[in-house]
Structures are given as C-alpha cells and as structure tokens.
Amino acid sequence: MDRIFRALADATRRDIVRRTLATEASVSDLAGAYDMSFAAVQKHVAVLEGAGLVTKRPHGRERIVRGNPDAIRRAQRLLDAYEQIWRDRIGRLDALLNEPPQK
Amino acid sequence: MDRIFRALADATRRDIVRRTLATEASVSDLAGAYDMSFAAVQKHVAVLEGAGLVTKRPHGRERIVRGNPDAIRRAQRLLDAYEQIWRDRIGRLDALLNEPPQK
DNA sequence: GTAACGTACAACCACATGGTTGTAAATACG
DNA sequence: CGTATTTACAACCATGTGGTTGTACGTTAC
Question: What residues does the HTH arsR-type domain cover (chains A, B) (predicted)?
C-alpha cells in the first residue's frame, strides 16, 4: 500500500497511469510525451510497475504498458474504509445527541 | 494532490489519519501510540497537516488533531476518475466488438 | 550482416525524507 | 512563585528519490 500511494504522489506518474488506463502505450511512446529523458520515464514506469499500477507486456522490441485498475481499486478501498470510520464517528455523535444516556 | 498521496504513503501516517478520523487526539496521545520519538510523530502530524489530511486545534497547552474527510474525498475523486477512464476503455472495446464499423 | 531502434541498467548528483537529539516557549499544576 | 508538561523547531544523519548521462543488449529493418 505504501508503494501504491508513493507511486501516485508524482504528477508524471499519475499521468502515465491515466494514459495507460485509457490506451496502451510503449515506453518510448510515453517518453515522447514528457519533457524529460527516456531513462527518467522508464524509471517512473518501473516505480508504477513495482506498485502494481501498470503491467508491462513485451511486443517485439517494445514493452507495452497498460494501467491496472485492480491497484487503483485497492487504494480506493482503503480510502473508503477511512471515510466509513469518519461516518461512524458522526453516527456516534448523532446517537449521543438524540438519545440521552440510558440508565 | 502530490502531498495528499505522499502523506498517505507511510503506514504510521495512515494510522494517525485512521485514529484521528475516529477520535480526536492530542499530539502526545498519538506519540504514545508509536514506538518512535515524540518529535518524529510530531513531524508526521505536520506532514499530514500540510496535506490537509488532519487539522490541529489548540486546547490549552495541547494541540488536538482531527482527521479531515475532505482531503480523503479529494483523493477518492481522483481514483474514481481513473477507474472511469478504464471503464470507458472497456466500453469502447465492447462497442468495437459488438457493432462492426459503419460505412 | 549491419545499422537503427527500444529497452534496461549502472553510476552519479542534488535534494527530500524519516528518524534522532537538544533546546526553547507556552501552558498547567502545586 | 517554581516545576512539570506539551509542543515547536533546529541541527544532524542515513537513506531514498527524481533526474541526468553513458553503456550494453535484444529486436527489427535494410
């Protein structure tokens, strides 16, 4: 989970995720889209792959990158759990206000 | 957005968010809960505050920390958008398979 | 077969991060 | 009042991160 959020904490990497969720792209396709070296983009892709946010599939001499919605959903579930914890707190406060203590 | 994900990319900070969404706690309350120095926990809280994931409210000599669900929801919206992008891709593929090209 | 392309990886650099200790200010307690 | 508590912040250290360049290797194209 650390790695998923860490990977998403960079605008370039979020953009790579966004792109590859919409359309597959080779590493050099991606490298062409950003104003940095090929190696830098390749490292970003490696970080995303390490977090499970993208997968790479060899196709000839290219590596085709595709976004992985499962990793996204894992992060979503954690955030959902946090929001639920907050809702529970609100629920407890409401209960306290509306139903005076018994006994 | 960078800061929100960056802040969530640490297990201690996620736990602080979880705790303070459920129940307010002073910085020293939090510090007592983890096996590290007070200053380390205080820095984690500062990172979370910088990301808007928690807010601090002074109460006497203590600072009461509470989780902020709005920041959580901002991250959720971004992840939701990503999942929608993926669904759109699947939708396009389905359309391509089920309706042969016109003209 | 040779040349060009796409990728991987190592080495390096500046800077951020997560931890430590120490010190100082503000507030509460006796 | 003086003392203890809570917080803030600076300085420091080891390690990680985001970028660079250079090199090597497999694959495609001619």
Answer: 1-87
Cβ-contact B65, B22 below 8 angstroms: no
**CA–CA separation, B31 and B36 (whole Å):** 7
User: Is B22 in contact with A67 (Cβ distance < 8 A)?
Assistant: no
Which one of B2, B3, B8 makes the best mutation probe of the A interface by having the most chain A beta carbons within 10 Å?
Answer: B8
Other Cβ atoms less than 10 A from the Cβ of B73: the count is 15
pLDDT digits (tens, 9 = 90+) for B27-80: 999 999 999 999 999 999 999 999 999 999 999 999 999 999 999 999 999 999
User: What predicted TM-score, i.e. pTM, was given to this entire model?
Assistant: 0.88
Q: What is the CA radius of gyration of chain B?
A: 20
